[in-house]
Design goal:
Blueprint lengths: L10 E8 L6 H9 L16 E10 L2 E10 L6 H6 L6 E7 L3 H5 L1 H12 L4 E7 L11 H11 L2 E4 L8 H20 L4 E3 L6 E5 L2 E4 L4 E2 L2
Parallel strand pairs: 1-3, 1-4, 1-10, 4-5, 5-6
Antiparallel strand pairs: 2-3, 7-8, 8-9
Length: 216
């Protein structure tokens, strides 16, 4: 599946990180977007409000710029964080395998996602900090069961050791691109359901009126 070939502008995809505070969302983003940089720091600083990183990737001959929004998990920032859910094509929902409360909060975050972004948005569930096996309180089977109940994919990850981080983002991006392709492939003119922008399909390329592809 090739939506945008070489020489075409990159497709901008908005992905939002969600989950309780201190589950490792920022470390996951850093591990993915800054290869080689230490994902974790001994001087942890909680995300205040919203931050984002951009990660250019090539997937199935499609140039993509992932705009990854890192939201604060603290209750006092909840309204601000969820306000950024609108217009997102994908969500990375994170809990900490050493913190049962963070796992139990996932259902509430899923509700927020559906209310703010709709039922058809792509979501992936990550059980982070799998490098801390001796401190585990959330069995892997619980994460698998929860993901199955919501019909989403699941990985256990380690931002510290960079375990399954790239695989998780690649799978989420692939699902988003497949949805874009299926919605656009058989029509000459299509209105994107996320932004209400009009896109034209010519010779298997998806181009907006100004020859750029922007979602979100």
């Amino acid at each position: 599946m090739a939506v945008l070939g070489q020489g075409q502008p990159a497709l901008l995809v908005k992905v939002v990180m969600a989950g309780e505070s201190c589950v490792g969302k920022t470390s996951i983003v850093r591990s993915y977007t800054e290869p080689g940089a230490p994902a974790c720091s001994s001087s942890y600083l909680a995300t205040i409000g919203i931050d984002f990183k951009v990660k250019p990737i090539m997937l199935n001959d499609t140039r993509v710029k992932l705009q990854i929004w890192d939201t604060a998990g603290q209750e006092r920032f909840h309204t601000l964080s969820t306000s950024y859910f609108r217009g997102a094509q994908g969500f990375v929902l994170v809990y900490d395998i050493t913190n049962m409360d963070s796992f139990q909060g996932i259902t509430s975050w899923m509700k927020d996602i559906h209310e703010k972004a709709g039922d058809e948005v792509d979501v992936i569930l990550l059980g982070n900090k799998c490098d801390k096996e001796s401190e585990r309180v959330v069995p892997k089977r619980k994460g698998e069961k929860l993901a199955w109940e919501h019909g989403i994919h699941f990985f256990e990850t380690s931002a510290k050791d960079n375990v399954n981080i790239e695989d998780a983002f690649s799978l989420l991006t692939k699902e988003i691109l497949e949805k874009v392709s299926s919605e656009c492939a058989y029509c000459e003119e299509v209105t994107c359901r996320w932004t209400k922008q009009t896109f034209y399909v010519q010779q298997s390329n998806v181009l907006s009126k100004d020859h750029s592809c922007l979602f979100g």
